[in-house]
Write a structure and sequence with these properties.
The structure holds two protein chains of two kinds.
Chain A: H1 3-13, E1 18-22, E2 25-28, H2 29-46, E3 54-57, H3 63-74, E4 78-81, H4 88-98, E5 103-105, E6 120-122, H5 123-126, E7 150-156, E8 164-169, H6 170-183, E9 191-194, H7 201-213, E10 216-219, H8 228-237, E11 242-245, H9 247-255, E12 269-272, H10 279-288, E13 293-298, E14 308-311, E15 326-327, E16 332-336, E17 349-354, E18 361-362, H11 366-372, E19 373-375, E20 385-395, E21 401-406, E22 410-413, E23 416-419, H12 420-430, E24 436-442, E25 447-453, H13 460-467, E26 479-483, H14 496-503
Parallel strand pairs in A: 1-10, 3-4, 3-5, 5-6, 9-10, 9-11, 11-12, 12-13, 25-26
Antiparallel strand pairs in A: 1-2, 7-8, 8-18, 13-14, 14-15, 16-17, 17-20, 19-20, 20-21, 22-23, 24-25
Helix pairs in contact in A: 1-7, 2-3, 6-7, 9-10
Chain B: H1 2-12, H2 32-45, H3 63-72
Helix pairs in contact in B: 1-2
């Protein structure tokens, strides 16, 4: 059973309904199916019918990227969306590590992967959007798949400088999506105000919700989050009913007190995930959207989008954290303490996940896979994988799970997951800009700070420009502090804790 | 005021040359986080409070537009 089995029902029941709104352009489910198959046939032809392999999609978030992702599925392969704003070097690192069958792109973006020897398929040479005349093209390679075959690959920050590509299968996205529909009563008429970049797992969930449940995706223009008033006006005009956002933008809207002036009467479902939503700003949203259901979701990509959820029903004080709640269906949460035993209520421990919908692993990366997906220490009788998130949590007196922090150098910045070690690796080893350095996060100002060792101070503008050649904008540190010698601890290692405290003074 | 605004912009985004850009938004010189940071800096430097409804793309495309929006919201040198 693949996601296409569900999509066939959607096409049959709602052929002429709008699947995706992208600015002034729209595409119906029938058009999506026709063009997805046509492109899928081209993918299959180019790759000699290979299946269960990754195919890169290097396009901005658009109707074209949706058709492309779907075409990969029809062709029996897994799509891997690539961010067109990523530096070319990073794209090339990913392509080297994953070796996709081919890349779907267009004439404008093809130059971003010009240095690669992966075959290229130009969308605009094969598909004319809106034109479904002529004989329909069938592409039925997907029929050879089973539910544990890969649906997509999602790249996450990795400390060695090359992203890790998480392999997620059909079954896990089908389960996540149908769980949402059944548990939170999502209707077929939802219009989802989509803001997640296509390289995020949330975006793949939205894609699956559209395919499975015939919901309409409305792609919010990329510049609108910079201008919250414009964003809200757009939501009203488009009659958006459902949003799944990272809290950053919602916090801005609250701080500007915009909902009192631009109410959102049509929005009745608000999901958020990706970082901690400060409760004060959350309470503001709740006050102005009394009709809405608010859900806090939590989870790393490795367990398929989210593994816990909390429907906010009780009152929360401004200084009380919003719990991450309870395990989602078919996910078991183990909170393991330092002795690898189950933590007692109130005791802090690492959140670990058990269940059928863990990712298959990291593509072409057995070492990282076996380090993150490990044997359940509570089960010595037979093989059973768990995923160790590295997040520290505890259960409160109500039995709700509460997020406490991280036990390593992974941070959430602007809703994106970043390994600070990756920033260090790129600056020190790849670009060789400084002798040594340490990236830490300033939690108050929400900035990445880079402390570095060099003979002389280097101009911030020079550092930013050079680093920008290898790292995406959100990973470029904001502040740079020069040291002739960085503080060391007794083992002679850079004293991270001291630097972290310095940044957070 | 113009000089000060260029200074603020250059500190936010040292890798770009704002003097040659005809449209800061179109040219991608300001992304989502920067506009929020820019508004905060303008408010602090020019002692004003910019109305959230004035934070729209057309008011941030050029140095002249930014000066106009600061003046409109009571900003002084």
């Amino acid at each position: 059973m693949t996601i296409i089995s569900y999509f066939l029902k959607t096409i049959k029941n709602h052929p002429n309904k709008t699947a995706v709104i992208d600015g002034s352009r729209r595409i119906t489910f029938m058009e999506l199916a026709c063009q997805g198959q046509k492109l899928g046939a081209a993918v299959s032809a180019l790759c000699d019918g290979a299946i269960r392999k990754p195919v890169g999609v290097l396009l901005p978030k658009s109707i074209e990227s949706v058709v492309s992702d779907l075409s990969c599925i029809y062709a029996g392969n897994a799509y891997m969306n690539l961010d067109v704003k990523m530096p070319e070097q990073r794209i090339s690192n990913i392509l080297d590590a994953v070796q996709p069958l081919c890349i779907i792109t267009d004439r404008i973006h093809a130059k971003l992967c010009a240095g690669s020897d992966v075959p290229i398929l130009l969308f605009d040479e094969i598909i004319t959007l809106g034109d479904i005349s002529g004989e329909p093209v069938l592409c039925e390679q997907y029929k050879k798949l089973i539910s544990t075959d890969p649906l997509c690959l999602i790249n996450t920050s990795g400390s060695t400088g090359t992203p890790k590509s998480v392999v997620l299968n059909h079954a896990s996205f089908i389960d996540y999506t149908t769980w949402g529909i059944e548990t939170l009563n999502l209707s077929e008429d939802e219009i989802l105000g989509s803001m997640a970049p296509i390289v995020f797992d949330h975006s793949s969930y939205e894609f699956c919700l559209m395919l499975i449940h015939s919901c309409t995706l409305d792609f919010i223009p990329e510049s609108y989050p910079s201008f919250p008033a414009r964003l809200l006006q757009y939501m009203v005009a488009q009659k958006i009913t459902y949003i799944f956002w990272v809290p950053t933008i919602m916090v801005n809207i609250a701080n500007m007190d915009l909902l009192s002036r631009i109410p959102l009467p049509d929005v009745h479902m608000v999901w958020f995930a990706g970082e901690v939503f400060p409760t004060k700003q959350f309470n503001y949203w709740r006050k102005y959207l009394p009709q809405a259901t608010f859900v806090n979701l939590y989870g790393p990509t490795e367990i398929t989008v989210d593994c816990t959820y909390y429907v906010i029903e009780r009152e929360l004080q401004d200084d009380e954290p919003i719990p991450i709640g309870y395990p989602r269906r078919e996910n078991d949460i183990l909170i393991l303490n330092e002795k690898n035993e189950l933590a007692q209520p109130g005791e802090e421990g690492e959140l670990c996940v058990r269940g059928p919908y863990l990712a298959m692993g990291y593509y072409n990366n057995p070492e990282k896979t076996s380090a993150a997906f490990v044997q359940n220490p509570l089960n010595t009788a037979y093989p059973e994988r768990i995923y160790r998130t590295g997040d520290v949590v505890f259960t409160n007196e109500r039995g709700e799970i509460v997020f406490k922090g991280r036990n390593d150098s992974l941070i959430k910045h602007m809703g994106k997951r970043i390994e600070l070690g990756e920033i260090e690796h790129i600056i020190i080893n790849t670009l060789k800009l400084v002798k040594n350095g340490c990236a830490v996060y300033d939690y108050n100002k929400k900035q990445i700070v880079f402390y570095y060792e060099a003979d002389a101070e280097i101009e911030t503008s020079v550092l930013r420009r050079e680093i920008g050649k290898d790292l995406p904008a959100y990973m470029i540190p904001t502040r740079y502090v020069h040291f002739r010698e960085l503080p060391r601890n007794t083992n002679g290692k850079i004293d991270r804790l001291q630097l972290k405290n310095l940044a957070n003074q | 005021m113009e000089k000060n605004i260029y200074k603020i912009l250059n500190e936010l985004r040292p890798e770009f040359d704002f003097t040659t850009s005809k449209d800061f938004i179109e040219d991608g010189l300001l992304d989502s986080f920067d506009v929020v940071a820019l508004v905060t800096e303008l408010e602090t430097n020019f002692n004003c409070l910019i109305d959230a409804l004035d934070i729209v793309p057309e008011n941030f495309t050029s140095i002249e537009q930014i000066i106009a929006v600061v003046r409109k919201n009571g900003g002084t040198l």
